[in-house]
DNA sequence: GTCTATATTTGGATAGAC
DNA sequence: GTCTATCCAAATATAGAC
């Protein structure tokens, strides 16, 4: 069973392990408050050892974000859902996220931190939101063309609102998990906004 | 016209000035990445000078958050709106916020940063969200009793969603102001959720 | 590829003079 | 109330041995 891993079959093992731990650490502490020393220690390396694989701390952050992108794309894999199916998929994602606190924490902490001056992830999040917006708008347009969408006015605004609810719920959920049901609330907002129930889960 | 300022008529001048500058700095850099040195310099003091007024950096952050609370309460002043009037007030706040980037930045950055381990503002934001939730739920209950509210199911979920949209929109707006109209999007979500238009602006 | 050692900077906080 | 001086800890990054 040949692996499709492109660059190095075994030399990248350590690198991936460092990335995994860096992800956890950035999620737990934020970027600025996380230290290479902690990441190194938890990786069973020294600080210099980590910096052999990633020349700078910002480079390490970039690596983490690229890794996340890759696994997100892999997760979709078999052709992404279209129209209302994508909105359904967003709700499913919210549900799955309730079992993946680390990921939620990573994105919540870093996205907000990225709006500070000179933050290395600023461009990443700017273009990420642009991508998310485009994706949701496209889905809404597809639904509208298929006649499945009563609300056809100002789709970009609709998309912004849907993305915003999901983000905002995450902050509340991280601070007080018992107080928030991310999936239900997301479903409710989307349903209310588009004026029609979502298709059943795949 | 006698001032109602309680503790010191003139000695607190410097203290307030430091708080103002600290607020800006925390908003721009986040808590961890802001330094007392920078706050001191911008205040025209040395680091030790600042620490004379606030014994620790965390104490300074607490001071900033208390100050904001006080001015928020002052802003409401003449009896807070009830029922749907409060939801209208939320939309108005979103509109005003588009002219107060500093405040938006402060809350967005700090609330997300507060979910990290051992953050000094964690309790503050936990109880702040609890307070916001209670406030919105109460308003929804009032509206329901007055027969102004078609959607009466699961009001806490409704409240969470409304708060979440507002927060989420702020992140997007800070990264790309032209891409988001916070007030319009907030209005649209609230209207869709409660199933009835909001009363006209006061 | 990983380590030790170190350079360099910067952080928060304290002591004591003025 | 503010400063200077200082302490101590921690941070990122580099050089060079193994």
CATH class division of the largest domain in chain A:
Mainly Alpha
Described by the principal axes of the CA atoms, the overall outline of chain A is elongated
Order of helices and strands of chain A: HHHHHHHHH
User: In angstroms, what is the radius of gyration of chain A?
Assistant: 19 Å
SS-based structural class of chain A? mainly alpha
Main beta sheet of chain A: none
Mean pLDDT of chain A, to the nearest integer, reads 94
Strands of chain A, total number: 0
* Quaternary structure state of the chains depicted: homodimer
CATH arch. level architecture of the largest domain in chain A:
Orthogonal Bundle
Count of helical stretches of chain A: 9
Query: Residue ranges of chain A: pLDDT <50 for 5 or more in a row?
Result: 1-5
Whole-Å distance between the termini of chain A? 30 Å
Strand composition percent of chain A: under 5%
Q: Structurally, how many domains make up the residues of chain A?
A: 2
Pair with the most extensive interface?
A-B, 49 and 49 residues
Share of helical residues of chain A = 55-70%
Would you tell me which CATH topology of the largest domain in chain A applies?
Answer: Tetracycline Repressor, domain 2
């Amino acid at each position: 069973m040949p692996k499709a891993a492109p660059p190095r079959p075994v030399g990248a093992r350590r690198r991936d392990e460092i990335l995994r731990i860096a992800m956890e650490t950035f999620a737990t502490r934020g970027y600025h408050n996380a230290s290479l020393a902690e990441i190194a220690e938890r990786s069973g390396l020294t600080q210099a050892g980590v910096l052999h694989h990633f020349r700078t701390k910002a480079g390490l952050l970039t690596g983490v974000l690229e890794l996340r992108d890759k696994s997100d794309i892999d997760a979709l894999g078999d052709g992404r859902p279209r129209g209302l199916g994508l909105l359904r998929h967003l709700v499913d994602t919210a549900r799955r996220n309730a079992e993946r606190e680390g990921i939620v924490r990573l994105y919540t902490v870093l996205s907000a931190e990225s709006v500070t001056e000179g933050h290395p992830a600023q461009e990443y999040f700017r273009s990420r939101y642009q991508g998310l917006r485009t994706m949701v708008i496209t889905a809404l347009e597809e639904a509208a063309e298929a006649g499945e969408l009563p609300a056809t006015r100002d789709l970009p605004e609709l998309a912004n609102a849907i993305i915003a609810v999901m983000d905002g719920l995450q902050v509340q959920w991280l601070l007080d998990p018992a107080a928030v049901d991310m999936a239900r609330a997301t479903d409710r907002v989307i349903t209310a906004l588009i004026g029609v129930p979502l298709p059943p889960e795949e």
